[in-house]
């Protein structure tokens, strides 16, 4: 899976599953403080990433992601 597919899929998950418009954020935007994710959003996101991108992130892997860029990189590494 190439990087544009992952980035597009991640943007789609934020938009469709979490109702968050990521176009106003950067890769350095903090997932909790700036994007506004809470524990429920992390759980929904984790399931959506698996279903839509075919990448399984553990809770620990997801919780180490502080920014949108970190999350994108974690998905790329697992999709590798």
UniProtKB/TrEMBL annotation:
Domain Carrier: 1-79
Domain of life: Bacteria
InterPro entries registered for this protein in UniProt: ACP-like_sf, PP-bd_ACP
Listed Pfam families: PP-binding
NCBIfam families linked to this entry: PRK05883.1
Protein name: Acyl carrier protein
Protein source organism: Mycolicibacterium sphagni
